[in-house]
Amino acid sequence: MEKLINDQFNKELYSVNLYLSMSSYFKSRDLDGFAHFFRIQAKEENMHAMKQFDYIHQVDGVIAMQEVAAPPNTFESIKQVFELSLTHERLVTKSIYNIVEQALNDKDFATHAFFQWFITEQVEEEATVKTLIKKIEMIGDNSSSLYLLNDELLKRPSVVPDVELK
Ligand SMILES: [Fe+2]
Ligand SMILES: [Fe+2]
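Output (structure tokens, whole complex):
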């Protein structure tokens, strides 16, 4: 179980890298709203990682830092960025389901309970990305609609609390 949670921690750190890369893609195209959206995503992923970091310590486990894979640094289109994000989130969801299933099998009820928060979070994240993919499909080649969405995304508040050491 400790290995599974350590691997999940590594996936959250990869998610930070992936979303910073996506944020950078938009920043270099002057789509500041999209860049802001993914910058906040990266911050949320860091919060996920730190929750798991703290949990491993709370149950007297050991954090084994691993190499974090490099994300793609080039993307084909705005839509492709969001599709990649959805594919990635679905993989993360599967990984969390696997941990929860294993926790039940092992009668590790603490880990089972801890990961319930992540199950709900994954539903929200996937729903957000799916909605944005639909909006981008509706926009098509209409640049004024694209800038309206960009402005909307610029207003996304950061709801991530500062992560404090437990
Ligand atoms: Fe996450
Ligand atoms: Fe995520």
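The pocket of fe (ii) ion (ligand 1) is lined by residues 12, 15, 45, 48, 92 (CB under 6 Å).
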